[in-house]
Amino acid sequence: MTPVRIIVTAGPTIEPLDPVRFISNRSSGYMGYKIAEAASNRGHIVTLISGPTRLDPPKVKKFVSIETAKDLLAAIKKEIKKSDCLIMCAAVGDFRPDKPAKQKIKRTRALSLRLAANKDILRALSGCREGKLFVGFSLETENIIKNSIKKLKSKDLDLIAASRLTKNHNPFDNRKLDVLIINRSGQKMLLKNKSKSYVSHVLLDKIEQLWYLMNNRGTTQNVTRNKRRT
Ligand code: CTP
Q1: 79-83 contact pairs (CB < 8 A, 24+)
Q2: How much of the chain exceeds pLDDT 70, in percent?
Q3: 92: CA distance to ligand 1 center in Å?
Q4: Hey, whose CA ends up nearest to atom 16 of ligand 1?
Q5: Alpha helices for 23-181 (secondary structure H)
Q6: Residues 58-89: pLDDT tens digits?
Q7: How far does the centroid of ligand 1 lie from the alpha carbon of residue 109, in Å?
Q8: Lowest-pLDDT choice from 138-142, 157-161, 185-189, 218-222
Q9: In angstroms, how far is CA 168 from the centroid of its own chain?
Q10: 164 CB under 6 A from ligand 1?
Q11: With a 6 A CB cut-off, is 122 part of the ligand 1 pocket?
């Protein structure tokens, strides 16, 4: 098939509190890096936009390093016009310290932090959505199906890959994991105890199928929806 121009976002965002401290999350970047690697090996043109990780970047067409959610949105906006597909694997921080201190905050007995909400990046990109495939991830500790379908709809996604974080199921790092892939029509595919490389290939199979349908038969709901918009 003709190569698809894919943006993969990966890793955590970090939000500064002062020049030496930040708030962030437990994302390792492993899933996004595996997707970028698998897509590149399939001959797709991959831009990997990544928050700080301990991983060596795979061989991709372009690698962009970011820190904050704002940086991530700006980097995607720069690339999105030249892309066919966005895979939002990054664990975007939903909050940032409202007013990061310019100097190191000194020790006190207690410290209250005021956090401001970051933008929802996928929603902020709705203006660049047309003719492209958008794939999201969803990490939940409860109500995985209900919450993930809600995200799929509210973020206008073609596919969402949902995973659960519980005492017995930790999807971080290079562990095997359970993933539920849900499409626009609500069809579900459960992958149980699979490696992130395996999950990447299943997702890419689905993305390639959708891309083919969009461009050769125009029969996906995505194309119908895009036509309705124009
Ligand atoms: N995402 C995004 N912008 C944000 C937060 C998340 O675009 N500010 C993307 C993620 O990259 C992922 C999807 O939205 O593809 C779902 O992210 P997740 O953290 O599971 O859910 P949230 O939308 O942040 O909702 P909540 O934290 O309330 O579960």
Answers
A1: 79/7, 79/47, 79/49, 80/7, 80/125, 80/128, 80/132, 81/128, 82/5, 83/5, 83/6, 83/7, 83/47, 83/132
A2: 94
A3: 6
A4: 138
A5: 30-41, 69-80, 121-124, 144-154
A6: 999 999 999 999 999 999 999 999 999 999 99
A7: 34
A8: 218-222
A9: 24
A10: no
A11: yes
Q: Does the Cβ of 136 fall within 6 Å of ligand 1?
A: yes
Is pTM beyond 0.85? Reply is: yes
| Residue ranges covered by each domain of the chain | 5-98+114-229
Q: Give the DSSP H/E element, type plus range, for residue 86.
A: strand 85-88
174 is catalytic: no
Q: Is the minimum distance from the CB of 73 to ligand 1 under 6 angstroms?
A: no
Q: What angle do CA 55, 28, 88 make, to 5 degrees?
A: 100
CA of 90 to the centre of ligand 1 (A): 9
Q: How far is the CA of 113 from the centre of ligand 1 (A)?
A: 22
- Determine contact, residues 63/79, Cβ cutoff 8 Å: no
CB 204 within 8 A of CB 39: yes
CATH topology of domain 5-98+114-229: Rossmann fold (3.40.50)
Q: Whose CA is nearest to atom 28 of ligand 1?
A: 94
